[in-house]
Amino acid sequence: MVARLRVILMVCWVLAPAMPATSQASNVPAGPLDYTRSMLLQASAIIGGNQTHDQKVAALSVLFGKFLDTDAMARDALGQHWSGFTPAQQQQFLPLLRELIEKAFAQDLLQFQNPEFEYAGQQLMQGGAIVDTKIVTPKDRFDVKYTLRPAADNWVATAITVEGVSLTENYGNQFNRVLSRMSVDDLLALMKRKFGNPSGES
Asked: In the chain, how many domains are there?
């Protein structure tokens, strides 16, 4: 199971060599669990479709762009390092990490053969909710929890845990190691070489 879990929590990208779209209110499910289900049903349809792998990654990335609050994840992952970034560095970092998270999550889901999603329930709390789901394959079941906050007529995920392991914590550990041996500008240059310039800025 540990080996399979690595698929979803893959964060070794940096060691290798060199906001949400708004739907019309009438189409948006009322609760966080229903909205999460609607996102994962769309993901399942893409995974099971006839597109090429690259087309599926692109389609899933667009879908997760509506569902994942990657800016919140970026700030959580950087922790105390975030305040050490200049405003210009923060502006460069956010779209780069967005590209990483959306594409990595899409690639990871495509590793599963026609996964099924189950929904264990939701826990409402002040300012948001936690939705419990499972990814089910013929051999394994993985507990996946989404921490959500309301955003306009939608819900967006600010954190994801898989089998109790936090996605942003994994990224945070990676950034801690990297920033202990290189500067912020070096990190940004490395990410740009990996992911290009998703913000479209010069």
From this structure: 1
CATH number at residue 184: 3.10.450.710
Which of helix, strand or coil describes residue 157?
strand
pTM of the model: 0.80
Domain coverage including residue 146 = 29-195
Instruction: Tell me how far apart the alpha carbons of residues 172 and 186 are, in angstroms, rounded to a whole number.
Output: 17
Q: Name the average pLDDT for the chain.
A: 84
Cα angle 5, 6, 10 (rounded to 5 degrees) comes to: 135
* Digit-coded pLDDT (tens) for 102-150: 988 898 888 887 789 999 999 999 889 999 999 998 888 999 999 999 9
The three-state (H, E, C) secondary structure of 22-87, written as one string = CCCHHHCCCCHHHHHHHHHHHHHHHHCCCCCHHHHHHHHHHHHHHHECHHHHHHHHHHHHHHHCCH
**Cα atoms found within 13 Å of the Cα of residue 140, Cβ hemisphere only:** 16
Q: How far apart are CA 25 and CA 38, in angstroms?
A: 14
